[in-house]
Design brief:
The structure is a homodimer of 204-residue chains. Chain A is built from 8 helices and 3 strands; from the N terminus they run αβαααββαααα. The longest helix of chain A has 26 residues. A 3-stranded antiparallel beta sheet of chain A has the order 1-3-2. In chain A, helix 7 packs antiparallel against helix 8. Helix content of chain A is 57%, strand content 8%. Chains A and B meet through helix 6, helix 7 and helix 8 of A and helix 6, helix 7 and helix 8 of B. The structure holds a DNA duplex (30 and 30 nucleotides). Chains A, B: This is DNA-binding PadR family transcriptional regulator.
Chain lengths: 204, 204
DNA sequence: AGCCTCGTAGTCAAATTTGACCAGTTGCTC
DNA sequence: GAGCAACTGGTCAAATTTGACTACGAGGCT
């Protein structure tokens, strides 16, 4: 899975209705340009593609308010919402070594009920354990690990990284279970988009 | 950078001359299927592309020894060797959050002199520090970090992962400086490819 | 008046990646 | 001795990603 679809669906969902440039801006606001390689081309492509697949409904909008090319506004369909939650759940659970996907999922995790988020993360921990086991399994020759020479360092790296990932995930689960943050159905949601006219306080 | 080019160049280099299937097999032997998403299509594509760019020289070979489609054998050109070392150095130095690239680079690091490898890794540590700083910088609002809500967890994750990466890198540098492994120009090199007819002891 | 830069909004060709598929050969088993 | 899986070697169309480019208006400077 690439992070783009999740990111774009999430952005459109928070706005209710959004055009490409708004999505682009939200991603910037979330700091996504730091960790996801979401270029304009990919964003516009994803919007069109998902519209074609029926995940988004495209409202043809008149030539934009400020001149320039006509804008298209998008809105989630039923299917789009399903896809969004499916991607979100998958991103939280499976380990696919793509941290941008995980980042996006963390940003949206509060769209799920608290208990479900925690449970998905617990499954993630199990996935990390499996990954670790498969790496050590593959790189463990009969004659002791020293036979591998420097190749063993590759395993070393993955194991180190899996352990770090597990540690962080366990910490997050703990914080969630201790009541941190506001999840779905718990009153006033945290709003992570810019309202019209509001300034981006992080713009460099 | 994607890991494929480095992996393919490295595989061809170790063989002197190789056709697509051999490359495919080496990658499997190195366990690369576990951590790089190198599908056959990508490998053959990379070979053709790099041949077109003059990095590889393509020898048209008669219909293969065992029937099936005719094979093409590739060999590194001068330019290909330069590109290989350029990619290798870059992969060791820069942090681009793609661990598959780093894995590949670790596998090939012994093609460099010991001192250079250590130096590149020291630069990598500096790059990790910069990345960490840029993340914490971006996600630190004026009113204390608690304003971010769950979004702060994203930063938390990246910082955790950068720290783990740094720790592992420092460990590796230490081992290298302590004399581990056999680097370029230090006598008998470690051979990481299957000779003709040899069996893969790791095949599942 | 002319020029330059920045912000808004988006397109396009080229490169890459994916995943499925093709076709011949052994080797094994029922 | 027929079938069938596994191995060898590779192609192909479709999807995705990249990076550069277009076009327009507002504001500022000189």
């Amino acid at each position: 899975m690439s992070a783009i679809r999740l990111l774009v669906l999430g952005a459109v969902k928070q706005h209710g209705r959004a055009h490409g440039y708004q999505v682009r801006n939200d991603l910037e606001y979330w700091g996504a340009h730091e960790w996801s390689h979401a270029k304009p081309g990919s964003i516009y492509h994803a919007l069109k593609q998902m519209a074609k697949q029926g995940l988004l409904h495209a409202h043809e909008v008149a030539p934009s308010a400020v001149g320039g090319p006509p804008r298209v506004e998008y809105e989630l369909t039923e299917a789009g919402a399903e896809e969004y939650f499916a991607l979100l759940r998958e991103a939280l659970t499976t380990y696919d070594q793509k941290m941008d996907v995980l980042s996006a999922a963390i940003g949206f995790m509060v769209d799920l009920p608290r208990e479900e988020a925690a449970e998905l993360l617990r499954r993630r921990v199990r996935a990390l354990d499996e990954w670790r086991a498969s790496v050590t399994g593959y790189y463990t020759p009969e004659g002791g690990p020293e036979q591998l020479g420097h190749i063993g360092e590759i395993m070393h790296m993955w194991v180190h990284s899996a352990d770090a990932g597990k540690e962080w995930t366990l910490g997050l689960i703990e914080r969630i279970e201790a009541g941190a943050y506001v999840f779905a159905g718990e009153g006033e949601a945290f709003v992570g988009v810019l309202a019209e006219g509001q300034e981006n306080p992080y713009a460099s």
